[in-house]
Design brief:
The protein is mainly alpha-helical. The chain has 3 helices and 4 strands. Helix 1 packs parallel to helix 3 and helix 2 packs across helix 3. The termini are far apart.
């Protein structure tokens, strides 16, 4: 089970943020071209960073927590990490960036009414 731990954490991240697309209308998956242009530079930068860091011995990946499958010397889980984490962040940003109204009526604060003068000239509120 340890060998699947990295994949399970990534799957949990996707599962937790999936309702943001399905229920709260993040519309990230519905715009694949925009998603690709957003993720491509992030993936490229961090893959290069990881390749350089592992080549220099700054860090490594435990075979205990990865499946052993690699691509260009990096575990497949690491490649997925560079897709999943920015995707989850993007889903969260798309929903929360629209403010409390995106979370539904219960999360939207009630407007504050201005005090109105009463018939005697005083204020009531």
């Amino acid at each position: 089970m340890d060998r699947l731990r990295y994949l399970l954490v990534l799957a949990a991240c996707l599962a937790v943020t999936l309702p943001l697309e399905a229920g709260l209308g993040a519309r990230v998956y519905r715009r694949p071209r925009r998603l690709l242009t957003t993720l491509a530079p992030v993936v490229a930068l961090f893959v290069l960073w990881d390749l350089a860091a592992t080549a220099r011995g700054h860090w490594w990946f435990s075979p205990r927590f990865t499946t052993g499958a690699t691509l260009l010397g990096l575990p497949v889980e690491e490649w997925l990490f560079f897709l999943v984490v920015p995707l989850c962040a993007l889903l969260t940003f798309e929903v929360l960036g629209r403010g409390p109204a995106a979370l539904g009526p219960a999360a939207t604060p009630a407007p504050i009414r201005a005090a109105q003068p009463d018939k005697t000239g005083g204020r009531r509120g």
